[in-house]
Amino acid sequence: MTERASGPMRWIRERFNIDPLIEFASHKQVPEWRGSFWYYFGGVSLFLFIVQVVSGILLLMYYQPGEKTAYESVRFIVTKVRFGWLVRSIHSWAANLFILSAFIHMFSVFFTKAFRRPRELTWYSGFLLLALGLGFGFSGYLLPWNTLAYFATKVGTTIVAVLPGVGEPIMELLRAGKDVSTATLTRFYGLHVAILPAAFTLILGLHLMLIQTQGMHEPEPWPGGKPRYMPFFPNFVLRDLLLWLIVLNILAILAVWFPWELGSKADPFGAAPQGIKPEWYFLFTYQALKYFPAKLAGIDGEVVGIVLFGIAGLLWFLVPLWDARTPRGIRNRFINYVGITVVLFIIVMTALGVR
Amino acid sequence: MTEPGISRRSFLDRLLGLGVLAWLGSVIYPVVEYFKTPPQGEAEVTSVVATKIQSVKPNSGLVFRFGREPAILVSGPDGKLRAFSATCTHLQCTVQYRNDLQKIYCACHNGMYDLNGRNLAGPPPRPLTEFQVTVKGDDVVVSRT
User: Which of A26, A76, A138, B19 has its CA 20 to 30 A from that of A211?
Assistant: First the structure.
């Protein structure tokens, strides 16, 4: 290998020893079984994140936060700038597909029990990445400063405030004041383009490093009893790239045929319009909260609902701690039932919310 | 080092640890404080002119600006004027008047209030805060009670 190298490879080798990396990539293997399909959703999520970074940077070239400029600059992007409509539409669609893909990735990891020892840290970091992704969605939603986004932000931040004790200060921290105002817009902008990307990149680095060093989770037990593997390079990588290409095509079709609407400019002193709904990925929470009565045992129904959701989220995050193996060692049907219940709950509540 | 008590090394380690903590505190504290938005120094509004009396029609509503927050002026079917904070007591959306229902309505979560601001249906846990309405000449003046 080393003797054959010449030209650029030799130039690089003289300055940086890349042999261990090549060695690593050439020996890396991916388990091949009926569940292998789900492995690709991690990669798809990564791809969509990259699309977000690139399209987001492009939007930054024209976007201006501020009461008199936010909505106007987005309108300028989608009506005047060449392909501006496409860039914005790609950014909005890729955001939604990213959340979808990350959810699929999370549930596939859950049901294949890939979060178990020694991959707990990968699970925790993945959960944080999804939480940050939702934060991206929530903060980015307000940036065009349209009516729907204004009231969705008002409702979303008020929900935080119902938490006893810490709720109010967190809400004021998010809103940069007592009300949703242009100060909130500036703050969300800072979150969306600086703080969240920095945090996301750090945790993503850890997440990817863990996956690379530990390798992909293998089924327990192997179907048929015999392990089968596929070389990571080039077999798995090429499949990955093909899927990325397919996703890019889906994204392009969605962005071109269903361009994201801008709506009307937010008016803080106008009535909330009918049909205020959060983005679909918050819809199940939003819908479930509607079923709580105004008062429950003397406490505001909202508070009970939010606290219950908080506890459920925490339990989900900590699943590696309470998932017990059965005496036979591997199967734990209870976990499957929990997972199926959660999936059904999300699907039913989202469907009811969409109606 | 067999002498009782703490060794010089562990003492210095602790001192260093404390120093690191103090340093972290001195960095984090100003950052946290920086994020707290200072009050805008806007004077509390106690009274505003909502509109002109000529433009108010029976069975209608008008959302207007009352200091930092929205308020609603409602003219009932009988023509009686009432004003309330327009911030829904549920999740702070802005309410509106529905002349087909003759009720104050919040579109976000289907909250319903009667013409006295009392929460009738849907999730709102409390009535709307009521303001005083007086007509001075042509002006409809709304003030805090």
Answer: A138
